[in-house]
Amino acid sequence: MSYNNSMRLSESKKGSKVILKKINIEEKLESHLKNLGLVIGTTMVILLNTVNGTIVLVRDGKLALGREVSEALEVDIVNGQMLC
Amino acid sequence: MGKCCANSDSCANCSRKLKDKYDPSKKHISNSMKIAFAGIPNCGKTTAYNYITGSTASTGNRPGVTVDVKAKYPRKSILKKALKNSKIKIKANEIVIVDIPGVYSLDSYTPEEGVASRYLRETSPDVIINVIDATNMERGLFFTYQLLEMGIPVVIAMNMMDEAKKRGYKIDLDKMSKALGVPIVKTVAYKGEGLEKALEYAIKAYGSTNIEINPVKGQQEKKYEMISHLITKCVKKGSGSFVSDAIDTVLLNSWFGIPIFFMIMLGVFWVTFGPIGNLLTDIFENLLNFGSAYIKDLVISLSVGETFTKLINNGVIDALIGVFTFIPQIILLFFFIAILEDIGLISRAAFLTDGFMRRFGLGGRSFIPIILGFGCTVPAILSTRTIPDDRDRIVTAISVPFISCGARLPVYGLLAAAFFGERAYIVIVVLYLLGIMATLITSLIFKKSLMKGGTAPLVFELPPYRMPGFRNVRIRLMETAWDFVSRLLTIILFASIIMWVLQNFTMGLQLTSDSETSIVATLGKHMAPFFAPLGFGDWQRVSALIAGLAAKETIIAAFQIIYGTSSIALLAFQVPSALSFMVFVLLYVPCIASVTALYKELGKKRLVVLSLVWQIIVAWVGAFVVYHAAIAIGW
Predict the structure, then answer these.
(1) Do B562 and B540 form a contact (C-beta atoms < 8 A)?
(2) Cys-Cys with B424: which of A37, B86, B141, B420 at CB 3.0–4.6 Å?
(3) Residue among A50, A61, A64 whose CB faces B139 most closely
């Protein structure tokens, strides 16, 4: 699998499959995100991207990430992976 | 078994008192085996706890329903079977089942997670039944690894297996059990399936150290990697729910989401306060009147003296009936809140309103206490524990008492129906909106002044959509009805009797038939001038408002006692004063229980006093503005 198009999660399109590359957020929240399964290298599918934030499908569950969080997550889009 | 506290009423070792000995939540019952249900939020721990113990603790389809540690002895029938199968001899009262809030990690992020991790770290249960949602296994197993690292014996209850099966999951539990080194039991908690076996395994595991894996302390990445390998070996995953994704696309849409949610809430209010709610209330009222007339006749026929007859018939029966009439509407409102919660809509509302709430200094998580506040202020205040940021949590707890709870309904029901007839429903909806406005304005003021600071970013797991569970909803409604009846027969009854005594005795404790010379009149007259600018500056209505501090429903009971009947009380009002009275009831201190909850959550008397003073100021100003606006309009 090859990756390109590094971007913020908030910029990714609905239905795209992305891999988490970097978390640019304060330590406590970063740790909470990791506890929720958002560790570097995790694959997730964007279910919705709105002004309020992003809903991602990750590890069989849906996570609601507010705008501030989705702007702090750097992701790589997986080539050609539009799931819906 | 431990030695401390075993056979004495007080314990020299831990200095605990007698009363604590019988509270199963206390750690020091060290001669009891403590079996704790633990797991990530919304995996079915409390449902399992309810089944095993026969409790009716609140459950719901959202994270953060359980915010405190609960403990109870298991049901005898279940324990008997579990003990028989485990072949272990232990007395029934030597096993305590504990339910703790859901938590993703022992490094707590929210205060309610702090409650759970503190319990696990400091109290150390003897055995943990780790509940895992089979359709959301990875996060569940992440927590399992942390529990295993603690060295406490663990039994896994792989829950929601029916849902996993429907979605095509195939899980090799034997293989997973061997890999983790702990027993795994298949469960469907809401049906009670597998829970007896889980309890049996937990009893067997007591005292063992069944860990065969090398703990990976810290390192979330490493743990998730191990979990991925485990799942690859043991689980064939099923399909996701495309229907759920499609519903979310519409419901969480930036444009349609809020209007759809608003329409749903409007529908709830229309059914509750509109024709359906009114019809149910009328039917119920007729039944009550029929019953009360019979009881009153019976009391008169007993010839127990005029004063006592008056006390029972007017001070108790009329007062309680006046309040009890509104129970159908209160139950309807709770029914809809339970349905919305069970479907999974309340959590989604938190995401949807995050941007909007930030304009008032709070995040979307603060919206959950607002919705819960429509039912009762106390759980709404307690639910602020799910808010990670301290300032946001304090401001939400201070703001949420303005949300109109079910106890205020009887007052609106009486006044709005009398003065606005068919349009009463609109007036009540406006009052609810006014309560939300007061909440948001309070948040904004506090976040711009005393509680300055940013708002914690929104991160939470969305629950799956589920059909409302009949059992859950039934339990919630039974609890609501029971809670209402018990308030009626305790606080409201007590307050009504006190009110009747104050109304029928003079300051010199002489019986009087002239209420103008009564204690309540004397006291009320001192306070009345404060309320005169609001249109109800007479001792009767002021006294009713003060009685309402015990519980808001008591206002109606007080009307019955002071005026004789509610319809006579209505003669004291005109449209402007009725409106300002309802606004004051909406905005002033909800009840003593809410003040206690506020103190429990805020922990500082200074903040509680500030909150109470603020509530009275807002109520006074709000009622003043509404009263004079209504006069200016010519109502």
Answers:
(1) yes
(2) B420
(3) A61
Task: Determine the pLDDT at residue B481.
Answer: 84
Cβ atoms of B300 and B446 closer than 8 Å: no
Q: Which chain B residue shows the shortest CA-CA distance from A69? A: B457
Q: Check residue B482 and give its pLDDT.
A: 86
Statement: residue B351 has pLDDT above 80: yes
Record the pTM: 0.82
Residue from A27, A49, A50, A84 to probe the interface with B (highest B Cβ count within 10 Å): A50
Mean of pLDDT over chain B = 87
Three-class SS string for B185-208?
A: EECEHHHCECHHHHHHHHHHHCCC
Instruction: Find, among B259, B462, B246, the residue nearest to B364 by Cα.
Output: B462
Task: Identify the weakest region by mean pLDDT among B83-92, B320-329, B414-423.
Answer: B83-92
- By the 8 A CB rule, do B512 and B506 touch? yes
| Cβ density class B479-513: b for 16+ within 10 Å, e for less | ebeeebeebbeebbbebbbbbbbbbbbeeeeeebe
Residues B164, B142: Cα–Cα separation, whole Å: 19
Question: Please, which residues bridge with residue A58 across strands?
Answer: A61
Q: Say yes or no to pLDDT of B347 above 60.
A: yes
ipTM for the predicted complex comes to: 0.90
- Asked whether the beta carbons of residue A32 and residue B221 sit closer than 8 angstroms, the reply is no
Distance CA B616, CA B599 (A): 17
Test mutation, B459, B461, B462, chain A, max A CBs within 10 A:
B459
Mean pLDDT calculated for residue range B251-274: 89
Cα(B559)–Cα(B318) distance, integer angstroms: 10
Tell me the pLDDT band of B600, cut-offs 50, 70 and 90: confident
